[in-house]
Amino acid sequence: MLRLLFQNIEQSFGSSLSPVSLLVYCGGLTLLGVVVLVPVWRVWMEYATARIGMERHWVMTCGRCGTRTIVSGRLCGQCEEDLGIPWIVRLWTASTSSHGWTIPPHVRWAGHLLGSAVFLLLSVWVVAGIGALAPQGALHRLFLGLAIVGWAVFGWVGGRAVRIGKHGVLARARDALMALAAVGAMAVALFLADAARPSQDIALARFETFANAAQIGPRVLQLSEGEIGFEYLQLDQEHFGYHRIVPLGFYGGQRLPVERSALKRWLVSHLRAHAASYTARGFTVRIRTERLRIEPGQSYEVVERAGQVLIRRVTNR
Questions:
Q1: In a 10 Å sphere around its CB, with 0-12 CB exposed, 13-18 middle and 19+ buried, how is residue 5 labelled?
Q2: pLDDT band at 230 (very low <50, low <70, confident <90, very high)
Q3: β-sheet with 284-293: strand ranges across
Q4: How many CA atoms lie within 13 A of 300 on its CB side?
Q5: pLDDT at 61
Q6: pLDDT at position 167 over 80
Q7: Residue 258, Cβ neighbours under 10 Å: how many?
């Protein structure tokens, strides 16, 4: 299904796919930079205007005396005539005006700068984690760009939802819902980007061999009859074309598990324990082992190629 989607996209754009994907990718990075820098610019401008005594107010022309007056209430400041402002407009202007802040400006500025710094660090972590700086092919770059756009929109509306200042409850709820939608769109784009990544050998492990043993990192695995096995968890969702290999460990004279974090160990245990229920829902979970009789004094690597796991000898080039 996903391959058909990718083929339709490639056929629809044709030769323009590469420039379009580059435009979306660069646009996403630019938008992300703007989202990070705008709060800094806003704080700078507010500080500069506060230093010279500038304030922001709503103004209007009085219908009776024709005087252009600052709106500070229902009455004109010149003739004290009712300005005829609807209550909903008075409520909205009161919530958007900078007049009468109850929170000191320096506290707001510090909060905005701190939030901008935290979002910058999170953005660096996200961009590096998804491999956005090294796109592989036009389709992969296109979906990475869309994912970055989703992350930038999340930062923009999410920042508005939690910003310090006069911001109504309904407006904050609206911005929070938009932020959740942006995260969902980003997750979909990342899923498509991962599926659109060009097929290539993915290195899973590497080891050296000597007489009846294998050196796997700092650990040594004793082998039985010169044969080594690599156990892995294979996840498949055929309808969406999802495929993932999760290394579990090596087999020889004993089992040598792959080192991983507590969260990943829990996830693997959960998938193994509930494999039948996931399979019933179309998400296949399999435990498989790839075996190979090795030769002493050689280097080997475990790779994933086109959805298959292979143990092969590393040749010097």
A1: middle
A2: very high
A3: 255-257, 242-251, 227-237, 284-293
A4: 25
A5: 78
A6: no
A7: 19
CB atoms within 10 A of CB 301: 15
Phi, psi of 253 (to 5 degrees): -70, -25
CA distance linking residue 244 with residue 309, whole number of Å:
11
* 222 neighbors 253 (Cβ within 8 angstroms): yes
Query: Which two tokens mark 195?
Result: 């599926």
Q: Write down the mean pLDDT value for the chain.
A: 80
Contact 23, 149 (CB under 8 A): no
Question: CA-CA distance, 166 to 146, in Å (whole number)?
Answer: 32
Beta bridge partners of 224: 227
Tens-digit pLDDT profile for residues 64-112: 787 777 776 667 766 777 777 777 776 666 555 544 445 666 776 777 7
Supply 186's token pair: 């980003």
Alpha carbon 21 to chain centroid, angstroms: 18
Amino acid of residue 27: G
- Report the amino acid identity of residue 15: S
Q: What is the pTM of this model?
A: 0.52
CA–CA dist 126, 118 (Å, integer): 12
How far CA 314 is from CA of 103, 220, 291, 295, in Å, comes to 65, 19, 16, 12
pLDDT at residue 262, rounded to an integer:
83
Taking the C-alpha atoms of residue 222 and residue 204, their distance in angstroms, rounded to an integer, is 20
